[in-house]
Each structure stands twice: as structure tokens, then as C-alpha cells.
Amino acid sequence: MKVLVTGATGFAGGALAKEHARRGDSVVALVRDAESKSASELAAAGVVLVQGDMQDRDAVLRAAEGVDLIQHIAAVYRTAGHSDDYYHAVNDGGVQHIIDAAQRHGVARVVHCSTIGVHGHVREVPAHEDSPFNAGDIYQRSKLAGENRFRAAMEGGLPGVIFRPAAIYGPGDLRLLKIFRGVQKGRFPMFGDGQTTYQLVYIDDLVDGIIQCGTHADAVGNTFILCGDGWITLDDFVGMVAAATGGRAPRVHWPMWPLLTAAKACEMVCKPLGIAPPLHVRRCEFYVKSRAFTNERARGGLGFAPKISMREGVYRTAAWYAEQGLIAPVPSRAEFEG
Hints:
alpha/beta; Rossmann fold; two-stranded parallel ribbon; 7-stranded parallel beta sheet
């Protein structure tokens, strides 16, 4: 196939583009900066780079010409330095550009990356694809708007598939680095009771699932949650990280209200100045929003079968951080297993 991957300079999109190339597909990536390190790595893997932005309809149209499959992964993630309008321009408006490109060029299939965040704080365990939407922050609301836009296009005849990934982790990702580093040093603060549910999907398993969304005969028209098998509490997750890094899990659980108060104050001071606050409410919600999902539909409809347990994935991630010099050396595998 000839495949267009958006968001290919990011963690998940980059892994997906490289795997498509490894499997022999002809891969095109829409990138904002063709001179960046991540873009150079894509080029070295045989990926053809098209410079452009998701807000630029003409660039998207140009990148999609002649492709058989679009893997739309690009999004603005949780950062506090962007306006709400920017989130909507990329996470919602960019979806329309993908739809336009697919229709213009007669693309055989389009896969759209949403997020389990559209369900927000889940009240049923495990939640599933038909659970109520409960988007809370601007990232989740803009992603839900994009998903709804894409679904409407599918109902109008677009050959599309939607997937909602759980929190993505593994070697190459830096979003969990602060947790691993803090736990290893015995300085990770735990707010709340630690019993909030948490669920992840390992990068290799996610990439397999996304490719199945793009190739499985029965995938078109469906929505799938792609997550690992099972969920754990935050206390258990942090304990797992402690074992993998040789660190120490926090013994004290602090109340949430001082953290949230400080986060709101940071946002009030920094936002008018155009400064990204060092602490913001969306980041604090990590401690209190429950995430527990089933991947049963993806298993039955795609043959999705995660191979990496959370325990194994956490150790591989810790070992990679150590190899990169991002954290101190970690216990040997034998010590970890013990």
C-alpha cells in the first residue's frame, strides 16, 4: 500500500510510520519541520516527507494524493501553552481537511485516532465503546468534536475506522519520564487516595492494532478501543515503577485540594502573560480521573491481542530511560523478576 501518516514526528505516529515502512508499504508523512531530528529519522527509514501543517488544507490534499490508506494520528496534546482555538483548529478542523483529502483522491480507507479521553472520568468499570461521553478538558472536547465530525463523514459514506487508544507508553516516549524519575529518586508525590484506576497500551501493541484498523476487512465503519489487558490502581502502577527503577513508592498520600488550588493560581497568573504554567489543572487530574476499559470489541472485530503485559512494558520503558541516560541504572531483569 501507499500510506499517509499524519503526526509521524510524534511518538505513536512515528512508530506507526516506521512499522508500515518495515512491512514494505510506501509511506508518506506530513511534517511541519522536515529538518527536525524526528523527521530525519523518518527519512532514514524510507518515509517520504511532505512539509505542511494540519491547519493547511492544501498541504493535506497534496500529501494524500495517490495514497490507498490515511492513518490520521496528528493532534495537539495536553499542553497549557496553546489557546482553545488552536486545539479546535487542529483536533477538529484538521479532521475536516483529512476528510476532504480522502474524498478528493478516492482514498480506500481512512483511520482516525481519537482517545479514550472522550469518555472522561468513567463511572462504569470497565467502560467500552458505547459508554457515555464525558469529555472534560479542552483536549478531550476538541478530540470529541473531531471524532464526531469523522463519524458523520463515515455515515455519509467515507470508508473510515475510529480507534480510541489508552495512555500510550514504551521506549521512545517521554510523557511518563517525570513519574519514573521521581519514583526512582523517592520524590514522586501521591495526591488523593491512590485507588484511581489507570490503564495503558504498550506502543508495539498499539501499532499492531492501528495497522489492523487499516487492513482488516471488517473494520470499516466501526469504532474500537485499543488498550492493554486489564487496569490497575495508581498505587499499584507507581509500585510497579518503583520495582522497575529500583526506587521507592510514596508512603504518604496528600490531599488534592492544595494541588488544585496551586494549579488554578498558576493558570490565572501565567495565561494572560502567554506563559505555559509549570502546573495546570489538566495535569492534576491524572490523580483523580478513573480510566478502566475493555478491549473486547477490538479482540473480536480486529483480532487485536496485546502481547506486552503492563509489568513487562514498565520494565522495558525503565530500561530504555536508563539506556538514554534519562534516569539512573535500573535493576537487572533477574532482580526485577524477583
